[in-house]
Amino acid sequence: MDRALYDIGVPILGICYGAQLLAEQLGGAVERTGTGEYGRTGLSCSGTSPLFADMPLSGRADVWMSHADCITSVPPGFAATASTPGAPVAAFHNEQRRIYGVQFHPEVAHTERGQQMLERFVLDVCGARPTWTHTNIIDQGVEAVRRQVGPARVLCALSGGVDSAVAAALVHRAIGDQLTCVFVDTGLMRAGESEQVEETFRSQFRVDLVHVKAADRFFGVLAGVTDPEVKRKAIGETFIRVFEEVARDVEDAGFLVQGTLYPDVIESGTSEAATIKSHHNVGGLPQDMSFELVEPLRCLFKDEVRAVGEELGLPEEIVWRQPFPGPGLAVRIVGEVTPERAEILRAADAIVIEEVRRAGLYGELWQSFAVLPAVRTVGVMGDGRTYAYPIVIRAVTSDDAMTADWARLPYELLERMSSRIINEVAGVNRVALDITSKPPGTIEWE
Predict the structure, then answer these.
(1) pLDDT (tens digit per residue) in 50-104
(2) Out of 16, 45, 70, 156, which one is annotated catalytic?
(3) How open is the CA angle 38-39-40, to the nearest 5 degrees?
(4) Cβ(114)–Cβ(106) below 8 Å
């Protein structure tokens, strides 16, 4: 960072790498000690700080970490205010210069009182006022869409999920009948999803909806593909080609609405951020597509999108539906995607969702689903040997998908899921549970 910025009097908060950058540039030390921290970590406050005004009296809290290097000494004139087992300086500041650094991530839901820390910085240190509202987001989004598309016809990539539904509702508010929604049945949807999309958007919302059945096409481009990045890009390009074909029948619509969110952008890689996985609607897009994208939610997180959806009047079953990846079951089959594997996974996934709903936990979980690794394991059923697929149950809690913790599901629920999947889904003889947080894992397996 340009060192002159440290001397102009503007408040600065460095988070994780940002804190390390502040420490190194201002004269402290950042080193690799051989011990990193990933996920939940215990924080101990060792000094007073405006950021910690809402901390428990004990000065201890659980925070979310993701770092290999750590700050070992603070710059001259700065004070260390917190530590963790793997970070001798987990927070530091110079109050007179209004420069603060924290090694942990206050912006994620799993950091205890993290939201209050950010509020203390923004409201108390910076003196800002909380004037940003979801109504403002909608008004600004409507104005931006109208300015971008003018009188042109617009297609919307509608999957039936939260993001695309909210994007469609916002754009429809902006341009009305200029919008045509396109639902592409890839053959990789969840059980009953195609019928639900038809019912919700054609019957209830009465939008102009085009339903394209393209399962054979998607299975064709995925044949023999095992690399997850190649999968995502093949799916992204095929979606665009389908939309381009539809556009020729809709007065040559030149705009395409996508429900892209900020986590999609960050994980797909930017000039400042590493590529974690290329989301089909960002890094998976072909270079030669003929559309100009309309992405009214691109700077929002999922919790903000849900609030906007409620403000727009979308029904609860749409707004609070668990997220489903655009590539569908393709990124939950680890290995080559085939119709047989998709059917097995679809059946197992339906059981997971049904049992989670029956247990009253659907609304408490960010996502709950099944994964099919394309390997086979030995089992025994009756008096015979089996050689069949395993199913992995994945259930996580989160607020924005940037971080997630594995859900502590009741043993009785896990037992019912396992028993039903093995007894009811042909081709499965083993069920496992994924207990990895994000980081170090991602929520989806690919």
Answers:
(1) 999 888 878 889 999 988 899 999 999 999 999 998 899 999 999 999 999 999 9
(2) 16
(3) 125
(4) yes
For residue 432, with 0-12 CB atoms within 10 Å meaning exposed, 13-18 middle and 19 or more buried, which class applies? middle
CATH number of the domain at 134-319, please? Answer: 3.40.50.620
79-84 vs 29-45, strand pairing mode: antiparallel
Q: Is the dihedral of CA 345, 350, 353, 354 positive or negative?
A: negative
> What is residue 46's predicted lDDT score, i.e. its pLDDT?
85
3 state SS of 195: helix
Per residue in 29-57, pLDDT tens? 999 888 888 888 999 998 789 999 888 87
Best CATH choice for the domain 338-433 from the list 3.40.50.970, 3.50.50.60, 3.30.300.10, 3.40.190.10 = 3.30.300.10
According to DSSP, the β-strands at 255-257 and 292-294 are parallel
All structural domains of the chain with their residue ranges: 3-125, 134-319, 338-433
Q: Choose the catalytic residue: 93, 105, 110, 279.
A: 105
- Examine the residue annotation and report whether 16 is marked as an active-site residue of this protein: yes
pLDDT confidence of residue 69? 92
d(CA 283, CA 20): 29
Structure tokens at 434: 């994924």
The pLDDT of residue 359: 97
Which listed residue (24, 107, 304, 354) is catalytic?
107
Q: In this predicted structure, what is the pLDDT of residue 314?
A: 86
CA atoms within 13 A on the CB side of 393: 29
At residue 39, the pLDDT reads 85
CATH top-level class for 3-125?
A: alpha beta
Asked if the domains at 134-319 and 338-433 fall in one CATH topology, the answer is no
Weakly modelled stretches of the chain, pLDDT under 70: 204-205, 267-285
Q: How far apart are CA 317 and CA 252, in angstroms?
A: 33
